[in-house]
Amino acid sequence: xxxxxxLSCLSPLAALPVSSAAxxxxxxxxxxxxxxxxxxxxxxxxxxxDIDFSGKTYARNAYTRSFRGVLDGxxxxxxxxxxxxxxxx
Length: 89
Fold this sequence. Notes:
The protein is an alpha/beta fold. It is 16% helix and 22% strand. It has helices at 2-10, 33-37, and strands at 28-30, 44-47, 51-52, 57-59, 70-72, 78-79, 82-84. The longest helix has 9 residues, at 2-10. The radius of gyration is 13 Å and the shape is globular. The relative contact order is 0.31. The model has no long low-confidence stretch (mean pLDDT 81).
């Protein structure tokens, strides 16, 4: 659910220019799938690079709480996320 929520929020951010090293966004950098998985639901984060989730599959109901933090796409993307579900909605 978090992945789906974040994907819908990040789409408009993908068109933003990449920040220079002199003006990094606020928060903790997210540079890998492991960093993404370790995010708390109320933290402040930014993508440090594109993150490829190839080979990982997440259950649709893997997250029980909504993400209420901040994730700045910083001009980067979450790629190849696979979410599986047995539900038909």
